[in-house]
Amino acid sequence: MEVLSEILNRVSANSFLDEQLPEESLQNILNAGRMAPSAKNRQPWRFIVMKSPQIKEKIKETAYGDERFTQAPVVIAACTTNIGYRMPNGELSYPVDLSFAVSFMMLQAEHEGFGTSLITTFREDEVKKLLTIPYSMKVIMMLLIGKTEKNGDHETRHPLDRIVSYDHW
Ligand SMILES: Cc1cc2nc3c(=O)[nH]c(=O)nc-3n(C[C@H](O)[C@H](O)[C@H](O)COP(=O)(O)O)c2cc1C
After folding, report:
1. Considering the domain boundaries, does residue 25 fall inside one?
2. What distance in angstroms lies between residue 30's CA and the mean position of ligand 1's atoms?
3. Does residue 12 line the site of ligand 1, with CB under 6 A?
4. Best substitution site from 64, 103, 118 to test ligand 1's pocket, by max atoms within 8 Å of Cβ?
5. How many folded domains does the chain comprise?
6. Range of 75's domain?
7. Considering only CA atoms, which residue is closest to atom 21 of ligand 1?
8. Taking 80 as the threshold, does the pLDDT of residue 151 lie above it?
9. Would you say the CB of residue 99 lies under 6 angstroms from ligand 1?
10. What is the pLDDT of residues 52-76, one digit of tens each?
11. Residue 152: its pLDDT value, please?
């Protein structure tokens, strides 16, 4: 079991190729999200899978015309079903919970040989209307999945000695 290679390989996709995502890969990706940890194991999420060109075309308009929405064979809207729960440290749990689920999906997609883009640039109120999402729920992010040429550049990261310290700040 090798996870670091998926982590090191992954880059955000700038575009997607015109290729389908096999159902088995999609189910593996969704299952990876399902198995992600969440605060108190509340699993406050719902994943709306979009494959239809018509719905993706409409969703693209909520995302300021980002072409990747219609290129990618699958778009997943990661929604929260609970916006009120706070963790014992006082912080809201849903952004953290949803981030774990989506990052597990991203890594499984990489493992299956597919690229991803994580998108938060969209008008949430319009997405909710299109996907008939109840008023009290929220769309936190959208994950686009599909075959890519490895066209993203590896963006630099801070070195470990800048972001890690031991025993004090
Ligand atoms: C919380 C979050 C929100 C993001 N929102 C967007 C977005 O709206 N549009 C986009 O193109 N990329 C978005 N990204 C992707 C980041 O820009 C990207 O992950 C970052 O620049 C590092 O590049 P890499 O993913 O290729 O390593 C988002 C990433 C995260 C974690």
Report:
1. yes
2. 20
3. yes
4. 118
5. 1
6. 13-149
7. 155
8. no
9. no
10. 999 999 999 999 999 999 999 999 9
11. 64
What is the pLDDT of the chain when averaged over all its residues? 96
Kindly give the distance from the C-alpha atom of residue 87 to the centroid of ligand 1, in angstroms, as a whole number.
Answer: 25
91 occurs within a structural domain: yes
Ligand 1 centre distance from Cα of residue 11 (Å): 9
SS (H, E, C) the chain: CCCHHHHHHCCECCCCCCCCCCHHHHHHHHHHHHCCCCHHHCCCEEEEEECCHHHHHHHHHHCCCCCHHHHCCEEEEEEECCCCCECCCCCECHHHHHHHHHHHHHHHHHHHCCEEEEECCCCHHHHHHHCCCCCCCEEEEEEEEECCCCCCCCCCCCCHHHHCCCCCC
Residue 158 covered by a domain:
no
CATH number at residue 47: 3.40.109.10
pLDDT, tens digit (0-9, with 9 covering 90-100), for 31-59: 999 999 999 999 999 999 999 999 999 99
Query: Counting atoms of ligand 1 from 1, which one is nearest the CA of 152?
Result: 26
pLDDT band at 158 (very low <50, low <70, confident <90, very high): very high
The per-residue pLDDT for range 78-111, each reduced to its tens digit, is 999 989 999 999 999 999 999 999 999 999 999 9
The verdict on residue 119 lying in a domain is: yes
CB of residue 155 inside a 6 A radius of ligand 1:
yes
